[in-house]
Amino acid sequence: MPWLGHRSEVADAARLIAAFGDDAGFEAAARADRSGDLGDQIHAHRWRQIERLIVLMSARAAIGTVQ
Predict the structure, then answer these.
(1) Would you call 54 exposed, middle or buried from its count of C-beta atoms within 10 A (0-12, 13-18, 19+)?
(2) Lower Cβ count inside 10 Å, N or C end of the chain?
């Protein structure tokens, strides 16, 4: 499960899904790699979490406990 530091990360994930469709996760991963290559580990981690969130948002069934 991703850890979200701010609700804007949900909006970022939604924007990537709207712009890249099924490739949104790959785009988030590329952004994480790019940030890591630049030495920006904070943003690299943020984009990895958004990548995980995109997987959850794209699932067609509930994941985890639903009450």
Answers:
(1) buried
(2) C
Q: Position 55: which residue type? A: V
Distance CA 14, CA 34 (A): 20
Which of 65, 37, 50 lies closest to 4, judged by CA? 50
User: What are the mean pLDDT values of the chain's consecutive 10-residue runs (67 residues total)?
Assistant: 84 96 96 98 96 90 75
Question: Which alpha helices (DSSP H) does the chain contain, by range?
Answer: 8-20, 24-37, 41-58
- Return the structure tokens found at 10: 């949900």
